[in-house]
Design a protein that fits this description.
Number of helices: 15
Radius of gyration: 23 Å
Structural class: alpha/beta
Oligomer: single chain
Strand content: 5-15%
CATH superfamily of the largest domain: P-loop containing nucleotide triphosphate hydrolases
Strand order of the largest sheet: 2-3-4-1-5
Length: 389
């Protein structure tokens, strides 16, 4: 931690003597640090793959894979942010001139989140927007036009490496679609596809394993030190969460977030074992990531928000839950539509259907009740408004 950060922590502590929480957003699992913790060897392996860019050559496209919470997004986004910031280039407009320098420009770097760019059009638009000064329109142009404009931009000794995060998720671009969309520019553009698993990968792959326990303790300690006051937690608390999370930083951060919220709501001066247990209980086993949930449409997030707020008796089956959700005026959907949405969310892992004791969903269907399959405490705080401090 930098000296200025250490001094700022002390100053903020003096301003909030009676508060357990200093900046809860520091425990947000969807937030990544500018300097990743405990991933030095991984950064070196990624830099090895990108090493040719420092010699003026375009690197080969490759994949980065690993389980949820392994820090793939944190490492790749931090690396590309630094590479982009330290590369001096002159960005050009969409309309080209005929005069070009004979020497190629330094390699440029850009990042795309496939959760936001869910189509080939959106992908090409985001990449083009990263390499030109002129704002690229979101509508009124076709995919072919964007393809031609990007080809023109990369036709004059420009080289670009694009990191595409969250490839291959239920509602994002597949690896094969990404490859076919960017292959026409392969002489000037290469990509880094980041995802959990690519069974059809033909490119070299860098694997990022789960965090070792000691490394995850370091990650959680650093984040908790920014989020909480000095005496709010101890090493044993963080160690217990790290052991429970089993190498998954997403779940570990979500559990600590929930523990901090529980302790704050109780007015406790520090986080104890009961608060940790409550935080862990609010994170389902094998849950989906909060980033996936927050990338859903507003209407679907609202359905999930109401579902998470329902008492157990109102979630006894999908039909009962759909009726209760539709009754909430903020949802604005019929019970039939809500039922369909819940089934679709369950198919993609956002909702877990748990076998119940009774059925009212028709003959032949196993009785199931819908349960949120994501960290509910963090989700409720992040979607309710500004993160409490």
């Amino acid at each position: 931690m930098r000296l200025t950060d250490r001094i700022d922590r002390r100053r903020r502590r003096g301003e909030r003597v009676h508060s357990l929480v200093r900046e809860l957003s520091a425990l947000n699992p969807t937030h990544h640090l500018a300097e990743p913790i405990g991933r030095g060897p991984t950064l070196e392996r990624l830099l090895d793959r990108l090493d040719s860019t420092f010699d003026g050559r375009l690197p080969e496209s490759f994949c980065v894979v690993g389980p949820k919470g392994a820090g793939k997004s944190a490492v790749v986004s931090a690396l590309f942010d630094h590479l982009a910031a330290t590369t001096t280039t002159t960005r050009r407009g969409v309309i080209q001139t005929t005069t070009r320098a004979s020497e190629p420009s330094p390699t440029e770097f850009a990042a795309v989140d496939a959760r936001a760019a869910t189509s080939e059009f959106a992908l090409l638009r985001t990449v083009l927007d990263a390499v030109v000064d002129e704002r690229v329109p979101r509508q009124g142009v076709g995919t072919e036009t964007l393809r031609d404009r990007l080809a023109a931009e990369l036709d004059y000794r420009r080289r670009l490496v694009v990191a595409v995060d969250h490839v291959g998720e239920p509602e994002t671009l597949s690896l094969s679609t990404l490859d076919s969309a960017l292959d026409p520019f392969s002489s000037a553009l290469s990509y880094v596809a980041v995802g959990r698993e690519f069974t059809d990968a033909t490119r070299p792959t860098v694997e990022i394993p789960r965090y070792e326990r000691h490394a995850l303790v370091d990650v959680l300690t650093a984040r908790a030190s920014d989020a909480l006051t000095r005496d709010a937690f101890d090493h044993e608390t963080v160690s217990d969460v790290a052991s429970w999370a089993d190498g998954d930083a997403h779940d570990g951060l979500a559990a600590l977030f929930g523990a901090a919220v529980t302790a704050t709501d109780e007015g406790a001066p520090r986080i104890d074992a009961s608060h940790v247990a409550a935080g862990c209980d609010a994170v389902p086993d094998d849950c989906c990531s909060l980033g996936q949930v927050l990338a859903l449409s507003e209407s679907r997030r609202r359905v999930l928000a109401v579902l998470a707020s329902l008492p157990p008796e109102s979630r006894s089956s999908v039909v009962v839950a759909a009726d209760a959700i539709a009754a909430d005026e903020s949802v604005g959907l019929s019970a039939t539509t809500v039922k369909r949405v819940v089934y679709e969310l369950a198919e993609h892992g956002f909702v877990r259907r748990v076998r119940g004791e009774t059925t009212d969903e028709g003959p032949g269907r196993p009785p199931t009740r819908p349960e949120p399959n994501f960290p509910t405490v963090v989700f409720e705080r992040l979607t309710a408004g500004p993160t409490p401090e």
